[in-house]
């Protein structure tokens, strides 16, 4: 995300070129987990670079702060990325689990999901409401409730939010 201290996302493509939708999902994940969320922004910008453009080494006479990276060359911008996040329930042979991420990715991998945007509900209360909504949507509602709000908190962006209808 194009914000100070923002997280970065690594796309593992194994020598393939990532699709535009994959790049957009990565951008949405980055902006939604940046301080833009706590500032209640509706959208933000992100950029992507190739692995060889990222380094911990800096030119002589310069320094990097702890945890920072140097990006050399052209940045490829993704402008106006909507801050929107989803939490869903995935069922596999290993059981039921909570997943989170960009709405398009979570919808693809879950049986049901709840979407959130920056808002007014504190994270703990939001997590409880998400569990309630997911348990209503799922046949195995009691299993979803047993996962607990603390598990949802692990996936939520950093700040208050609101539940919104899916697009």
H/E series: HHEEEEEEHEHHHE
Low-pLDDT runs: none
Task: Tell me the major beta sheet.
Answer: 4 strands, antiparallel
Radius of gyration, CA atoms, in whole angstroms: 18 Å
Strand tally is 8
**Mean pLDDT over the full residue set:** 91
Amount of helix? 25-40%
Number of helices: 6
> What would you call the structural class?
alpha+beta
Global morphology? elongated
Q: What is the terminal separation in angstroms?
A: 23 Å
Q: How big a fraction of the residues is strand?
A: 25-35%
Widest β-sheet, arrangement of strands: 6-5-7-8
Describe it.
This protein has 167 residues and is an alpha+beta fold. The chain has helices at 20-32, 35-38, 103-109, 123-137, 141-147, 149-153; strands at residues 43-48, 54-55, 70-71, 76-82, 85-92, 95-101, 112-121, 161-164. It has a four-stranded antiparallel β-sheet. A two-stranded antiparallel sheet has the order 1-4. A two-stranded antiparallel ribbon has the order 2-3. The protein is elongated. The mean pLDDT is 91.
Notable traits:
alpha+beta, 28% strand, two-stranded antiparallel sheet, 167 residues
Q: What does the secondary structure layout of this molecule look like, with pairings?
A:
Elements: H1 20-32, H2 35-38, E1 43-48, E2 54-55, E3 70-71, E4 76-82, E5 85-92, E6 95-101, H3 103-109, E7 112-121, H4 123-137, H5 141-147, H6 149-153, E8 161-164
Antiparallel strand pairs: 1-4, 2-3, 5-6, 5-7, 7-8
Helix pairs in contact: 4-5
